[in-house]
Amino acid sequence: MKQRKLLSQQHPILYFLAVWTRRIRRYCDWYFDNKKYADKRTSEKLSFRVKKHQSVLLRKLGESNEQLQLNKVTNLKIAVNQLDGILIKPGETFSFCKLVGLPTKRKGYLLGMELSFGEARAGIGGGICQISNMIHWLVMHSPLTIIQKSNHSFDPFPDEGRVLPFGSGAAIFYNYIDFQFTNNTKDTFQIKLWTTDKYLEGELRVNKDLELSYHIFEENHKFIKIENQFFRQNEIWRNCIDKKTGNIIKTELLKKNFARVTYEPKNYVE
């Protein structure tokens, strides 16, 4: 079943106006929503590590343009420089888009791969969602409260070395599709980011050791065929664990995912 194009896809000027209407609304929110946004950074690491993760810089993504992958690495390095060392103090909210800003050629961003209108295509700053994906994964292992997160509406590529559950990322499109979380604790947290030759690396740190640790796991994953289209679904759960006893004190469902798949999976149910 062929999907009907949106009106904004058929008329580019309408798309431009729709995007900037949403962006202006978000600018207004940033100034008038009474949130205190995190904006202080330090090169000094806070004392305790909550969680560390790394993700491969260059991945095999279908038949994607290799140059877009190389450009993505440049984009990641620019965005990392805007985020590394950011402190999230008690009562503060982290906003990915507010901190990184609008990716432009003038800032050095290149054409990278982005997911839009049901397809993977080139866009300035494409690929920096790899950072928001990482930060989201780190935050899931903490008591921080996620207040805004969006998934991509479709799954464009077969898994190639996937290590995290499907749907555990955080889509970004400046500035109204944002990733935000709030620190409702009494502790100060910090995000550290850097790149190596092969990896994007990240840590979530805190000023004092936490009483709980967290384990994320996936349940009920499967591919489904409905009429002539494929879909993917799963659930993401979290165990909250007392560090002193090792006992699970709470198990909670974080997210149910259901997304269209643009390739034919090897195993599916009808």
Output the keywords.
single chain, 270 residues, alpha+beta, 4-stranded mixed sheet, 22% helix, Vancomycin_resist_VanW, VanW family protein, Glycopeptide_resist_protein
The N- to C-terminal Cα distance equals 16 Å
* Spatial order of strands in the largest sheet: 1-4-9-7
The figure for the number of domains is 2
Share of residues in strands? 35-45%
Please state the oligomeric state of the protein chains shown.
single chain
Gyration radius, to the nearest Å?
Answer: 19 Å
Q: Could you say which structural class the secondary elements and strand pairing correspond to?
A: alpha+beta
- Strand and helix order: HHEEHEEHEEHEEEEEEEE
Counting DSSP H or I runs of 4 or more residues, the number of helices is: 5
Average pLDDT reading: 91
Low-confidence stretches: none
Number of strands: 14
Shape type: globular
How much helix is in the residues? 10-25%
Largest sheet: 4 strands, mixed
Describe this structure in words.
The structure is a single chain. The chain is an alpha+beta fold. It has 5 helices and 14 strands. It has helices spanning 7-10, 12-32, 66-83, 96-100, 129-140, and strands spanning 36-37, 48-56, 86-88, 92-95, 111-116, 119-124, 145-148, 154-155, 180-182, 189-195, 199-206, 212-226, 229-242, 248-261. The chain has a 4-stranded mixed β-sheet with strand order 1-4-9-7. The radius of gyration is 19 Å and the shape is globular. The mean pLDDT is 91.
